[in-house]
Write a structure and sequence with these properties.
Layout lengths: L6 H26 L4 H22 L11 H26 L2 H8 L2 H13 L5 H18 L7 H28 L4 H24 L5 H4 L2 H29 L1 H8 L2 H11 L7 H18 L8
Helix pairs in contact: 1-4, 1-10, 1-12, 2-8, 2-10, 3-4, 3-7, 3-8, 4-7, 4-12, 5-7, 6-13, 10-11
Length: 301
């Protein structure tokens, strides 16, 4: 890379990855004190929408969506944040492991790559195929650390993969929209519309037991604000700015480090133990994701 890139760019993308790594830890903190899933997701999206709208308007990056593109935008929101957050949050609740949650979610670039091959006929090398192939044993080392576990554990892994496949569907649809709209526009609108997707679920399942006093308590409101302001807003802005300089392919390599950050953070906070098989599994998955994306050309939005 030489001296071509400013250290500020690497600080920006690293900060974004650290924040996304801790998103699993903050979510797990809320789940451990039994905050309802739809309450977590709904208020995270509401706060993120406010922040992103203010930022996008202030820098004059919010574009008007053409009528013919609205169905695509609605499909985009169905994939992410709607199905993605349902799969990720309920999955994380079931497995009760920020590390396992992060390791499964880290395979999103792999499945997005496969979707690109299938739908957009993108070409990959034998090295990319090798990278895809070795991620599975790495995941299994983490998933099966203590055996198959109970039904809730397996269901949790399935839900986490629902999030992965939803993000893959998102990547396919966003490629169509990104040709016409900037990233700020897409993500701001997807959060705003996402509020209305989650509102009926929040009102149906969580609102009857909703307590403003409890939600506004320090142990709940701080992680929710962290998820919204730091993970859904700031990290995204830093990541988009990094993509402009480094490109999508090189920037995405940094996302491979998210499981390691989540695992280390969870270990330091006492949320879970760190075994040899888990460490080896994390290393294999990170290596697999990096190899799978190596020299892969992606069109930046």
């Amino acid at each position: 890379m030489g001296n071509k890139y400013s250290p500020v760019v690497f600080i920006s993308v690293t900060t974004a990855i650290i924040l996304w790594g801790f998103s699993f830890i903050w979510t797990n903190m809320l789940l451990q004190i039994e905050v309802p899933v739809y309450t977590i997701v709904f208020f995270r999206i509401v706060i993120a929408s406010i922040i992103l709208t203010i930022v996008s308007l202030s820098i004059k990056r919010l574009q008007k969506i053409a009528r013919r593109d609205i169905p695509w935008l609605l499909l985009l929101v169905l994939f992410e944040p709607f199905l993605y957050f349902i799969g990720e949050t309920f999955g994380l609740k079931a497995v009760n492991s920020p590390t396992l949650g992060a390791i499964v979610i880290a395979t999103i670039p792999i499945f997005s790559l496969i979707a690109g091959i299938w739908i957009y006929k993108e070409r990959i090398s034998k090295l990319n195929i090798f990278g895809i192939a070795i991620t599975l044993p790495g995941i299994l080392l983490v998933v099966l650390e203590n055996g198959w576990g109970n039904g809730a554990h397996i269901n949790g892994v399935i839900l986490l993969f629902l999030a992965v496949f939803s993000a893959t569907g998102y990547s396919v649809v966003v490629k169509r929209l990104a040709a016409k709209y900037n990233s700020y526009t897409i993500v701001t609108y997807q959060n705003i519309i996402g509020m209305f997707y989650f509102l009926p679920l929040f009102l149906s399942y969580d609102f009857k037991e909703f307590s403003p006093e409890r939600v506004l308590s320090t142990e709940i409101i701080i992680p929710i604000i962290a998820l919204a302001a730091l993970c859904s807003a700031l990290a995204f802005i830093l990541f988009v700015n990094s993509i402009k300089v480094l490109g999508v392919a090189r920037t995405n390599i940094f996302t491979s480090l998210i499981p390691a950050i989540s695992a280390y953070g969870a270990y330091m906070l006492g949320q879970e133990n760190m075994s040899t098989s888990k460490v080896v599994g994390i290393i294999i998955v990170i290596a697999g994701v990096i190899i799978a994306q190596k020299e892969k050309r992606v069109i930046s939005s």
